[in-house]
Amino acid sequence: MPTFSVRRHAGIALLALLALSAALSLAGCNRNGGETGVVAESAPPPAPMQAAAGYAGGMAMKDQRMRSVEPAAEPSASEAQQDGTPLERFLAVRQDLSVEVPAEQLADAWGKVRDLCGTLKCELLSSSLLRETPQQPGNAMLEMRVEPADVDRLLGGLAGVASVVSHTTTSEDKTAEVIDVEARIKNRTEFRDSLRVMLRDTVTKRTMTDLLAIQRTLSDTQAELDAIATQRKVLAQQTSKQHIQIQFTAKRALVSSGDGYSPMRNALRNAGSVLSESVGSLITFIAAVLPWLLLVVLPLGWLARVLWRRRRAS
């Protein structure tokens, strides 16, 4: 009997503890649920207020539609290739050559290379020819843009008529510039098309001021797009063709001063020039002294003769 009484009291205590724990848990859940409900749920506004807000938002969107149509951010060159494909490179290649040709063949060699450019995919940018004169040697120049496939043919034809003295090749990477320009073209084209759609829209009511603003923005965008397209064409010329400049000079004979040098032979070779210089100096001296002979020496001679005759007569 005592054992049964102890067990009954223990069971009652355990049930009391379980009831207290369940009550505390329910109280915490109600508290959290109430707070969450306050934050997450709010009473919807009345229907008239919703209609007014929708009308005001539509008017604001209509007034700001022109200013809100802005071009998207232009991708940079580093973000142009995100799919892992190889990036196409655009290089501006330039070649500068200096060649020597015999003086009597300079004009002929220059003309042959210029005519060869006309038979290839070659664009002649500038050319000049200065023939040899007693005061200065002759020289010539050619500047052109050549397709990469025809560069070897042009240089091969040049090697057949002249001796290459120096050949310099440089290249400039224009990849980033080309990607940026193409992104700007795409972006401005989309912006221009959206403006044209707004002008053709007959459903939305716009004032004359709005229409004029759209038209003015469209004109400015088209002008900017034309300028960017011109820049892209210039880049295409620089990267699709090689810039080649050839400088023609006349060969100069070098005088050897080795064992064959002879002072007597050199003096005989220069005798004519020395004699001509001496005769020229004599003529210059006579031309400088002759006026003084006529003005001073002849009157003094005549006076001396008169005095001598008088002295002899006396």
**Low-confidence parts, pLDDT < 50 over ≥5 residues?**
1-6, 27-78
Sheet-strand content, in percent, reads 15-25%
First CA to last CA: what distance?
205 Å
CATH class wording of the domain at 91-172: Alpha Beta
Structural class label: alpha+beta
Total helical elements: 8
Please list the strands of the largest sheet in the order they lie side by side.
2-3-5-1-4
Provide the CATH architecture of the domain at 91-172. 2-Layer Sandwich
Order of helices and strands: HHEHEEHEHHEHH
Biggest sheet features: 5 strands, mixed
Q: What is the CATH topology assignment of the domain at 91-172?
A: Alpha-Beta Plaits
The portion of residues assigned to helices is: 55-70%
Average pLDDT metric: 76
Gyration radius over CA: 50 Å
Overall outline = elongated
Count of DSSP strands: 5
Quick overview of this protein structure:
This protein is an alpha+beta fold and 314 residues long. The protein has helices at 2-40, 47-68, 106-119, 151-159, 175-200, 208-240, 263-269, 271-313; strands at 91-101, 122-130, 139-146, 163-173, 242-250.
Structure write-up:
This protein is of the alpha+beta class. Among the domains are: 82 residues, Alpha-Beta Plaits, CATH 3.30.70; 64 residues. The protein is built from 8 helices and 5 strands; from the N terminus they run H-H-E-H-E-E-H-E-H-H-E-H-H. It has a 5-stranded mixed sheet. Strand 2 and strand 3 form a beta hairpin. Helix 5 runs antiparallel to helix 6. It is elongated and about 140 Å long. The termini are far apart. The N terminus is likely disordered.
